[in-house]
Amino acid sequence: MKNIALICGGKSPEHEISVRSAKNILRAIDRSLFRVILIGIDRQGRWRLQEEGQLGKFVPAEGPQLALAPGNATGQIIRIDNHQPIEQPEAIFLILHGPQGEDGTIQGLIRILGLPFVGPDVLGSSVAMDKDVAKRLLREAGLNVARGIVVQAHERHSLDYKKLTQEFGSPIFVKPANMGSSVGVHKVKTAEQFAAAIEDAFLYDTKVLIEEMIQGRELECAVLGNENPQATKVGEIVTAEEYSFDAKYESEDAAKLLIPAEVSDEELGRLRLVAVKAYQALNCEVLSRVDMFLTPEGKVYVNEVNTLPGFTNISMYPALWEEAGIPYTELITRLIRLAISRHEARKRLKTGWRE
Ligand SMILES: Nc1ncnc2c1ncn2[C@@H]1O[C@H](COP(=O)(O)OP(=O)(O)O)[C@@H](O)[C@H]1O
Ligand SMILES: [Mg+2]
Q1: Is the domain of 208 the same as that of 221?
Q2: Which residues pair with 286 in a beta bridge?
Q3: Whether pTM exceeds 0.70
């Protein structure tokens, strides 16, 4: 029996999605192998020990607050109310999305505690989160990414919409470099929409991407592993009307997941190869979902790599593995094992103080 701390919630706008994923994991995790310690990060960012039944739509602002004491072999996570350490976790299952969840910050904190955790390490998490840096690494690996420019906040007033459309066509996409779940992402067709989109995108980041629109099918591939990452078949996101974020995230039936997507064997082969190359180019480990476009001419583009993808039992990532013959419960076990084996490999390195 291993103690696993499941950490969910967080300050990101994706708090609710994280809690939904956590509830599914709680229902499915193999209780003959793992004992779960539930840690919720409330919307203010406070860490709290939770009872499993306490999770609602959000992590409630109740339950003992926790403090971290790095350096101890055990007992690094301490209840503030009675100063007692909580049961020592042997690994951490992070199920957080967006800023401070999949951007390397919490990964750094957990590395300081010296515990294995699910998801790419600090470097992979942060480069995948930053769409600007990620695109540069993907391009360097010989993969196709949308053409575009990166604008810093202080340069925003020099933008010329007409010039941009001459270079990148219309519509164009405007998006913050570091966000998720389409927050701040806009597809624009007019100068007015463009001005509003820029205004909005800069609410979320000091760096914004302006991109050509890639006309194509949206296909996603689930990748799993450390040294030898394995890729599933691809799933497709099908939206009923013209692209709309509401369709994708608000209403359950407006966006459909097709698993597996109908692609030729040749296309599937290329998509999987691109997915694994993207995973490796961004230093991903344990798991990531690689989101791609397939154009009518058969060209594959990488849109982005999500290092802690949605993980409810109907989310794309677990559904793709289910299709590949790995049920949800087994997938959870594999993720924890991969986290532990990466940690063991790192522990063997001569990086720390030795007596
Ligand atoms: N260059 C692009 N061409 C076509 N569609 C795009 C482009 N960029 C983003 N999109 C659309 O917007 C959605 C959200 O953008 P994405 O870059 O994936 O940001 P997020 O991190 O918020 O998911 C994508 O799933 C896709 O439908
Ligand atoms: Mg996306």
Answers
A1: no
A2: 225
A3: yes
